[in-house]
Design a protein that fits this description.
The complex is a heterodimer. By secondary structure, chain A is of the alpha+beta class. Chain A has one domain: Roll (Ubiquitin-like (UB roll)), CATH 3.10.20.30. Chain A is 29% helix and 26% strand. Chain A has a 5-stranded mixed β-sheet with strand order 2-1-5-3-4. By secondary structure, chain B is an alpha+beta fold. Chain B has one domain: Alpha-Beta Complex (Aldehyde Oxidoreductase, domain 3), CATH 3.90.1170. Chain B has 4 helices and 10 strands. The longest helix of chain B has 18 residues. Chain B is globular. Chain B starts with 8 loop residues before the first strand and ends in a 7-residue tail after the last helix. Classes of the chains: A alpha+beta, B alpha+beta. At the A-B interface, loops of A face strand 5, helix 3 and strand 9 of B.
Chain lengths: 82, 157
């Protein structure tokens, strides 16, 4: 399984902070493509958004970043700390 | 290895005391001649609206890792004796302290520049998100282009 985390506005939009999906995706991009098939909200906020950031195992990642079973994939909006 | 135990990078709900932290930071470094400390605080206005409350969210594990990476970059770039980043999470009110970046070095230029560098990268690279409460309700704070542009100055060298 792959552990997925959603933060801040994404967590509220999707109504969940965390979920597990089968580890059947080779890359972040394939995972995003699959999540986007859930509906318009998912497509708009994950697939079509240029602003959204992704991290794999606490490192900033990209759509080409490979993922494997046991990985933690996090999606979040641009950061606003400080 | 737990990032949360790194005494030089702390993400915490509790407030911090500037004097206590600066004394701790330079305690074992008699060769320190300069300490620059930046404190970020909650403003009571943003985008023209009154702010009643702020809430800071973070990504446990990744946030500490990102902050430590920024700190390490600063230590590679400038000659520093020690440095400290404290960032608060949870709910805060106007005038509360949010963040402390303190840098100790032998001479002031390094401490000034490194603290500036750490804050600029913290703003754009550390996973924190702010939600604010106005009289009209709550809203997520948008990232600022000016923060993105601020790190450009460090890429020129």
């Amino acid at each position: 399984m792959v552990n997925i985390l959603y933060f801040a506005s994404l967590r509220e939009t999707f109504g969940q902070a965390q979920e597990q999906v089968p580890a059947q995706f080779r890359t972040v991009g394939e995972l995003v493509q699959s999540l986007a098939e859930r509906g318009e909200q998912w497509r708009t906020h994950l697939l079509e958004s240029n602003a959204i950031q992704v991290a794999v195992n606490h490192d900033i990642a990209h759509r080409e970043t490979p993922i494997k079973a046991g990985d933690e994939v996090a999606f979040f909006p641009p950061v606003t700390g400080g | 290895m737990s990032d949360s135990q790194n005494p030089f990078v702390r993400v915490q709900q509790d407030d911090f005391d500037l004097t206590t932290e600066v004394n701790w930071l330079r305690n074992e470094h008699a060769d320190v001649g300069a300490v620059v400390a930046f404190v970020g605080t909650v403003r009571d206005i943003n985008e023209g609206d009154d702010i009643q409350q702020l809430e800071l969210e973070h990504y446990p594990g990744m946030t500490e890792k990102a902050l430590e990476a920024i700190r390490q970059q600063a230590h590679q770039r400038w000659s520093l004796e020690s440095s400290l980043i404290i960032h608060r999470i949870g709910k805060m009110q106007p005038k509360d302290q949010i963040v402390l970046v303190a840098v100790a070095s032998r001479h002031r230029e390094n401490a000034f520049e490194a603290s500036h560098f750490i804050m600029d990268y913290l703003k754009t690279n550390a996973p924190f998100w702010k939600k604010e409460w106005t009289p009209e309700g709550e809203r997520w704070v948008d990232a600022r282009l000016s923060d993105e542009q601020a790190i450009q100055r460090w890429l020129k060298d």
